[in-house]
Amino acid sequence: MSENQLHASPAVTLTIAGSEATGGAGAQVDLKTFQELGVYGIAALTCIVSFDPKDSWQHRFVPVDQQVIADQLEAIQSCYALGTVKLGMLGTPATIDTVAAALKSQAWDNVVLDPVLICKGQEPGAALDTDQALKANILPLATFVTPNHFEAESLSGTSIDSLEDLKEAARIIHRQSGAVVLAKGGVRIDGPDAVDVFFDGETLEVLTAPKVGEVAVSGAGCTLAAAITAELAKGATPLEAARAAKQFVTEGIRNRVSSNAPFDAVWQGGGRTS
Ligand code: PXL
What we know:
Blueprint: E1 12-20, H1 26-36, E2 40-52, E3 58-63, H2 66-79, E4 84-87, H3 93-104, E5 110-113, H4 124-138, E6 144-145, H5 149-156, H6 163-177, E7 180-186, E8 193-199, E9 204-210, H7 220-233, H8 238-254
Parallel strand pairs: 1-2, 1-4, 4-5, 5-6, 6-7
Antiparallel strand pairs: 2-3, 7-8, 8-9
The chain binds 3-hydroxy-5-(hydroxymethyl)-2-methylisonicotinaldehyde (PXL).
Residues 17-18, 20, 25-26, 49, 59, 88-89, 116, 119, 221-222 line the site of 3-hydroxy-5-(hydroxymethyl)-2-methylisonicotinaldehyde.
């Protein structure tokens, strides 16, 4: 620490994610969450998503050139000794290979994978390839994985209609990956609460919060995974990180931002007391 520095340095925390231009998902959400939780956020962009208001707000998806992704990661990894990374939308098998190579070039304390499998507007064929590449090349590198309802069904190969199903899916995904799992039921499991299942191989804990409406909010998954990442970077245990993140995203949903798009966005500052 230099002499005139009054504060301890924040943990430098990387997200490798896509841009979603309206700020409701992706790297923008990750950086806002990191800042709110007191870690120094940096981002490598994998793709640019622009909703199309002329076509039911479908996603227009453009991958970033592979060399440009590799260049960003080279700059970042040369600049900082990183311990914690979050992976958001990667989007193509080629990007998955580029990112996997960069991840394997160093040791990590925490690799948090939000397994964003498909994005509306991507070709289903391309999405299937991406799903398979993610499972084969990225999931084995993850220390913590946060599938939503759909992703948990896809990763576990089960169908999830109840809390018991979600618990079983979390166990299966842990067995497959060795990672700590937070399987998110969100608004998709019937009942008054938004339930998520934490499983680390020993402890199974159901995290609940009263549902805020019955409609999913944009960016809730990104915010939750980013908050877990920030808490882990600050030294929390996985269970502490999951509990804190659930509270953080619940406050963000309660204080959400509405727009002309058909879905509200999480406000990452929703838990501020002043
Ligand atoms: O919420 C998943 C997600 C992640 N990353 C980007 C996105 C989306 C959904 O829109 O656009 C860049």
